[in-house]
Amino acid sequence: MIELNAQQIAEATGGRLTSTVDTTATVTTANTDSRLMTANGLFIARPGETTDGHHFIGAARDAGATLILAERETTDANGQPDPAVIVPDATVAMANLARYIVDKIRQHSETTVIGITGSVGKTSTKDALATLLATQGPTVAPQGSYNSEVGVPLTIFTADLDTRYLIVEMGADRVGNIRDLADIVRPDISVVLTVGSAHAASFGSVDNIAQTKGELVEALPAGGVAVLNADDINVAAMATRVPDHASTLWFSAAFAPPRRPRVLYAANADTTVDENPRFDLQYLADDATATDRAGREVTAGLIGEHHTTNLLAAAAAAFAAGVDLSAIVTAMPSIKPASAHRMARTDRTDGITIIDDAYNANPESMRAGLKTLAMLGRNTGRRTWAVLGPMLELGDQHAKEHILLGEVVVRLNIDQLVVVGAAARALYTGAVNEGSWGDEVDHVLTNEGAFDLISQRTAPGDIIFVKGSNGTRLWELADKLTTAPLGRKEQQ
Ligand SMILES: Nc1ncnc2c1ncn2[C@@H]1O[C@H](COP(=O)(O)OP(=O)(O)OP(=O)(O)O)[C@@H](O)[C@H]1O
Ligand SMILES: [Mg+2]
């Protein structure tokens, strides 16, 4: 983080200093988690969903926090007031502090801020873009999937005065959410990937999701660039919301290039035997050279055809940020899964392959992952296992979407289905009604039950794909399948 003193933090947040603040001291890191606190840190105490950060001020000071941002005054073990900036709302204060920091960074030197939103693929795209931009200059991107009113400021707190590229992932669960996040970072480049049914429960409708994602392009400044997915009808419609003072760069992996003025197009899109995306990256525009139009061959280390879109989006964002197409193409092969539990492939020494996609799940990402699994099976003749937990947050669509997914598993000819958790029961029912029976399909209630069943029945050569919603902790099962011995227990 850029070095800040207590006066600056009070100025940025409209806060009040407590009597024990050392006004000459500065902080160089900031966090809401006392366990991540380091020397000269600013600890932000905010009431969370499960606990209240104000309870951890002592722990944070022990870990090196020299200043606290809090909603109320607290005292230490000796009854002394903790040195703090007191604000009415710590989450709002984080946003204000982040905005202040972005201003300072921009004032110091040229900085390009890129915001990424969409219903699926944000984290994959930001990781790909971070790999591309890091070849050009100091790049800051969110850790994991930080994309909320807390995650966005925390990302900005990791930037420095020298940061050349600042990538921000933006998620939303209500109309107005993206506008608020965009107001913190004011992106120069706004990337919108897809509008899906993700989180439809909290939004009420797909239209509301489209309305919210589009807030990112409305926020563009003069000279800004909207990077839009021409293949998604709801994203394409956002072109009319791009302000006149900004421009649009399209990306597409459709069967034929869209009739748009400036497009990065994936021609001859395909996958390798390991299901790594491969395509010819063409730039089709008035200012394109013959080589740009002919295309340059691209492969990357991500797994699944669906990542073509994310790679294109990352390439387009880098191009919009001024990076040469040839440099983008050169850097593409070094793009690998960078955040945990996203199509992470482990080839075990016993010949079993685990594909851990257990970070999260919704209907779109489940279908994409299962299709990839089916393709891997088809390419290699290996037996395929889908180990699936529930998709949460689908509201009244829950049963229907799970039944449909069970049908998809059968139609894709996945060899073995293990459904995990009571909430995923309809997935099992969908598969059974579609014609899967006997040993092909099982329903177990717990991760332990799933592990025991798979361990009993798996054999060298199997490919085991694990996926479920974040709240179901299926990644613990994926971790165990990746590392623990598998196989029939010896008979006593
Ligand atoms: N374009 C896509 N189409 C379908 N599935 C995708 C696509 N891109 C990524 N996925 C899959 O969706 C899941 C989530 O991907 P990722 O973490 O990149 O998305 P996200 O938008 O950041 O999600 P979240 O909202 O949970 O932060 C992964 O299983 C990934 O393989
Ligand atoms: Mg994410």
UniProtKB/TrEMBL annotation:
Pathway stated in the Swiss-Prot or TrEMBL entry: Cell wall biogenesis; peptidoglycan biosynthesis
All copies of domain Mur ligase central, residue ranges: 116-318
Domain Mur ligase N-terminal catalytic stretches: 31-77
Any one Gene Ontology molecular-function term assigned to this protein's record: UDP-N-acetylmuramoyl-tripeptide-D-alanyl-D-alanine ligase activity
Reaction equations catalysed: D-alanyl-D-alanine + UDP-N-acetyl-alpha-D-muramoyl-L-alanyl-gamma-D-glutamyl-meso-2,6-diaminopimelate + ATP = UDP-N-acetyl-alpha-D-muramoyl-L-alanyl-gamma-D-glutamyl-meso-2,6-diaminopimeloyl-D-alanyl-D-alanine + ADP + phosphate + H(+)
Residue stretches making up the Mur ligase C-terminal domain: 341-469
Family: Belongs to the MurCDEF family. MurF subfamily.
Protein's UniProt name: UDP-N-acetylmuramoyl-tripeptide--D-alanyl-D-alanine ligase
Organism, as annotated: Enteractinococcus fodinae
Top-level taxonomy: Bacteria, Bacillati, Actinomycetota, Actinomycetes, Micrococcales
